[in-house]
Specification:
Structural class: alpha+beta
Order of helices and strands: EHHEEHH
Helix content: 40-55%
Distance between the termini: 34 Å
Largest sheet: 3 strands, antiparallel
Amino acid sequence: MDVRIKLSPETYEFFLHQIPEGLTTLKALEQAQLIRSRMNSEPLRYEFDCNDDLAVSLLRFAQIYCNEAVSEIDFALRVARQEKPPARRRGFFWG
């Protein structure tokens, strides 16, 4: 399952400097896109997609080293794990 994680610029920079080279979580972070404000072009957040396993490992890392990121990563995991409701049938003949 794909998880879209959104991190503040400060949290993103912290993770880049703390995660050891060669880990797949670091590679996922390096693929993040910078989202800037339209008003003054300051960085608002970084967004990246990763699989469930990478998100869980990033959450564990955050629980130890960066409490500020725990809620952001946990929220992304919960959103990704929510099941979509079944499609509603529409029409006159669907009783």
